[in-house]
Design goal:
2 domains, single chain, alpha+beta, three-stranded antiparallel sheet
C-alpha cells in the first residue's frame, strides 16, 4: 500500500503527543471531581477533639461545647450534688450504667473520671431533644423529690446529676458520656480516649 507522501513516523508522534496531552487534561479535570469526595475542613474539624478549660467553671456551673455537631455539657458539681447521687438509685432505671454508652474509666456512680466534673452529651436518649440543666433542688414544677439534674422539656424525661435516667420516663438509657481525657488538672480533651492524647 503506497504511503502517498504521508510521514507515518510524524503521524505516530502527533498521535502519541495528543494522547499524552489529552491524558494530562483529563487528570486536571478529574482532580477537583475526585477531591470533592474528601470531607471538607469543616467536616474534619467537626469530628476533632475539643479542649475545655474546667478551671473557669464555678461549682454548680455548666458550660456547653460542641463536639461532632452535638452539644456536650460540662458541669462542675458541688459537694452537695455529689452527695445526692447514692440516694437516687431506687428511682433510676439504670443506676449502675450497665446499659449506657460511656468510657470504662467513667463507669462509676459519678459517671466521671474526676467526680466533680460531669461530661455528658446533651441529647435526650428518647428522641434527641436537648435536656435543660436544672440544678435547683425541689422546684415547684419538678417536685419535692427532685435533687437536681437534667429535664427534657419535649417529653418529660428526667436525669439525675450523673446523667442517669429516672424510671417511668420515655428516655430508655442514661445520657451518653463521650470519650475524654485530662491533658492537665484543669484541661479536658473531649473526643479522645485515655492515652490517646500526646
Amino acid at each position: 500500500m503506497p504511503d502517498n507522501g504521508v510521514n507515518t513516523s510524524r503521524r505516530r508522534f502527533l498521535t502519541g503527543a495528543a494522547t499524552v496531552i489529552g491524558g494530562v487534561g483529563a487528570g486536571f479535570v478529574a482532580v477537583p471531581f475526585l477531591s470533592s469526595f474528601q470531607p471538607s475542613a469543616r467536616a474534619q474539624a467537626a469530628g476533632a477533639p475539643v479542649e475545655v478549660d474546667v478551671s473557669k467553671l464555678a461549682p454548680g456551673q455548666m458550660v456547653t461545647v460542641e463536639w461532632r455537631g452535638k452539644p456536650v455539657y460540662v458541669v462542675h458539681r458541688t459537694p452537695a450534688m455529689l452527695e445526692s447521687l447514692p440516694g437516687q438509685d431506687g428511682h433510676l432505671r439504670d443506676p449502675q450504667s450497665k446499659e449506657s454508652i460511656q468510657p470504662e474509666d467513667a463507669r462509676n456512680e459519678a459517671r466521671a473520671v474526676k467526680p466533680e466534673y460531669l461530661i455528658v452529651v446533651g441529647i435526650c436518649t428518647h428522641l434527641g431533644c436537648a435536656p435543660t440543666y436544672r440544678p435547683d433542688v425541689a422546684p415547684a414544677d419538678l417536685g419535692a423529690e427532685w435533687k437536681g439534674g437534667f429535664f427534657c422539656p419535649c417529653h418529660g424525661s428526667r436525669f439525675d446529676m450523673a446523667g442517669r435516667v429516672y424510671k417511668s420516663v420515655p428516655a430508655p438509657t442514661n445520657l451518653e458520656v463521650p470519650p475524654y481525657t485530662y491533658l492537665s488538672d484543669t484541661v479536658v480533651l473531649i473526643g479522645a480516649e485515655e492515652g490517646a492524647a500526646s
